[in-house]
Fold this sequence. Notes:
- The protein is mainly α.
- It folds into 3 domains: 10-118, Fumarase C, Chain B, domain 1 (Orthogonal Bundle); 121-285 and 298-367, Fumarase/aspartase (Central domain) (Fumarase C, Chain A, domain 2), CATH 1.20.200.10; 379-443, Fumarase/aspartase (C-terminal domain) (Ribonucleotide Reductase Protein R1, domain 1), CATH 1.10.40.
- Helices cover 60% and strands 5% of the residues.
- The protein contains 20 helices and 6 strands.
- The strands form 3 sheets. The chain has a two-stranded antiparallel ribbon with strand order 1-2.
- A hairpin with a 2-residue loop joins β1 (162-167) and β2.
Amino acid sequence: MTLPPQPISPLDGRYRPAVQALGDHLSEAGLNRARVLVEIDWLIYLTDHGMFGTTPLTQEQQRSLRSLVDGFDQASIDELASLEATTRHDVKAVEYFIRRRLDELGLTSIAELTHFACTSEDINNLSYALTIRSAVSSVWLPAFDAVIAELTRQAELYRDAPMLAHTHGQPATPTTMGKELAVFVHRLQRVRAQIVATEYLGKFSGATATFAAHLAADPDADWQAISNEFVTSLGLTWNPLTTQIESHDWQAELYARISHANRILHNLCTDVWTYISMGYFTQIPVEGATGSSTMPHKVNPIRFENAEANLELSSALLDSLASTLVTSRLQRDLTDSSAQRNIGVALGHSVLALDNIRGGLGQISLNTAALEADLDSNWEVLGEAIQTVVRAEVTEGRSSIADPYALLKELTRGRRVGAAEMAEFIRGLDIGDAAKERLLALTPARYVGLASQLVDHLAD
C-alpha cells in the first residue's frame, strides 16, 4: 500500500513546529522572494541614476514594484514554479515574473533593464547573503540567545552551590555548579560575538566578474563604484575580486563558527546528561509524559539526547558546506547550487537542538542533597590544599617536611579519607599554628576557591 505524499526530512514532518520559522528565509520560496527583491532594487537603482536615458520611477511606481516582495504569496510561488517549468532556469523565471509586472504597471519601456548586465550568480549570491543573514539574525540567534539566557540564570542561581569536580571522571578539587555552567556561558558568548561579526559579502560584476558587458553598454560609467554602492545599499559588504561566483569564503567562516557553537552545546548536553545520571540534577516530570514504555519510574533526559543527535547532524552538514563551497572549478562550476539548498537543513537541525536544550534546562532542578553527600564522602580532595599549604610553610621556614606531595599521596591516593582521619592528620603536621587552623576549618564544601566570584565575569 502506498502512503499519501509524506515529508522525507523529519524537519518538515515530526519537528516542523520547532523549525518552521526558517522556511520564511531558507526555503526555495524565501530564496525566490529575495531574488525578486534584488532584481527590483537593481531596476530602481538604474532608473534612479538615469542610466541609459531613463528617468526615476515615481514613488507610487516604486511602491508597486516593491509590493511584489512584501506581498510575495502562494500565487507568486505558483507563478514562478509555472515559469520555471518552461524556462528550466530559476533566475530566468524571476526575470520573466518581473517583466510581467512591468507590463501590468505600464512600465514596458524599462523592461530591458530587468536583470541588466547580470549573470544569475549576481542575483543568487546577494539573495543567499540576504536570506542567510536574516535566518541567522531572526531565527537561529534568538534561539541561541534563549539558551545562553537560561544558562546564565542558572549560573547565577547555583553560583554558591558547592559540587565535587570530576577530572578524568575521578573526584577532584570542588567547584560550584554555577561556576561550571558559567564556563559554558562564557564559551558560547565568545563564539556568539564571532558569529555576529560575520561579514556578509556580495559580488555584482557580471559573467566573469570583469564588468565586460557593463563597459560595452556604457564605457563612461564607473561600474565598480556602481556595483559597490548597490551591494552596500543592501546592507552587504562589496567583494571586488571574484570569479563568476562570490567565493563563499564568508559562508565557510559563518558555518565553521556555528558548527563550533554546536560543539560547545554538545559538550553542555553531555555534561548535563552526566550530572542527571549522577543525581546532581533531578528532572521535573512533565504532566502526562511517558519516560519509558516499560519502566514507569523513569524520567529520561531525552531533550539532551535529542539535542546531541541534531547538533551532530547540523555540524556534519555545516562542515560539509564550509569545505565544499570554497572550491569552484576555474571561473565557475555548479556544485554550490545544490549545496546551498541545504543551508536551511543544516541550520534547522541546530535550531531544533537549541529548542530541546532550552526545554531540557527548564525541566531540571539542582539536587543539593546529592551534591553535599558526594562532597562529604570525598575528604581526600583536601590533599591538594594541604600539600600546597605545607609547601608554603616550608618556604616560609615554618616546616621541615621534606616531600609534602609524597606525604599526602601516601595518605590519600586510591583510598577514601574521612573527616576525623583528615583532622587528625592535619593536627600532626609540622606547620605553623595559623596554617593548621586554616586547614582544620576546611571542608570539601568550603574548598571551592573563587568559584562563586568567577561567575561575575559573565558581566564582562
